[in-house]
Amino acid sequence: MKKIALAFYRDEVGKELLLFKKENQSSINRWLHYVDKNFEYIFKGFQVDYIVRALGSDETSTYDKNTPLDLMGRLLAKKFNAEYITDILTKTRTEQLKFAGGEYNRKKILDHKYHCDLKGLRKNGTYLIIDDVSTTGTTFNEIGRAIGKASNNQANINCFALVKTLWNKDYTSDKQEFNSKFYKKLTA
After folding, report:
1. pLDDT bracket for residue 98 (50, 70, 90)
2. Cα separation, 21 vs 33, whole angstroms
3. Do residues 162 and 7 make contact, with C-beta atoms less than 8 angstroms apart?
4. Distance in angstroms (rounded) separating the CA atoms of residues 37 and 110
C-alpha cells in the first residue's frame, strides 16, 4: 500500500487545510487547482479504477455530497478516468480521533470499525483511498483492511492525503522549507 501526502500539517499549510476542512470555497479551489495542475507529478505511474474517501468522525456511511473531499474525489476520478465510489463503506460510530494521541490509541479506536461491500465492483481493481489528513495512517490501514476483506485480498490499494501530521521532533528545517515552498505554490 503506497501512501502519498502533498505536504505537512504545519504552519501556513496547516492553516490552509483547516480552511479546506471548514469548507472555505477559496481554499477548496486552491487545493483542487493544485491537484489538477500537478496531477501528473503527484500520481506519476499510478493507475486507479476506484476512488473512495475516508469517513468523517461523525459519519457512519458515505454518500455523494459536496464536502471538500467529495469534490476532490470527483476531480481525481475525472483525472484518472476512474469511478468515484460513495456507497461501499460503512463504519461503526467511533469517538473522534482528533485527540486520540498516537498510533496505538488510534488503532484501538478504529479496530474493525470499517466495513466494505464492493457491490459488484471488480475485486481485483485498484482503489485509491483519499483523506484530508493522515496522522498515523491508521484510518488508511483500517479502510484498506475492509476493502481487502471484501475483495478476498485481490484489490490493489493506495492512499492519498492532502497533508501528513508530524511530531515536533520530525518537523526538521528541510521539511519546514518544503512546506514553505509548497504553500507558495498552493496559493500562487
Report:
1. low
2. 16
3. yes
4. 34
What is the radius of gyration, based on Cα positions, of the chain? 16
When divided into structural domains, the chain yields a total of: 1
Residues 6+ apart with CB under 8 A from 109: 94, 95, 97, 100
- CATH classification of the domain holding 173: 3.40.50
CA angle 128, 186, 182 (to 5 degrees): 85
Which cell is 41 given?
507529478
Within 10 angstroms of residue 56's Cβ, the number of other Cβ atoms is 15
- Domain range for 11 is 2-186
pTM, to two decimals: 0.89
Q: How far apart are CA 68 and CA 73, in angstroms?
A: 9
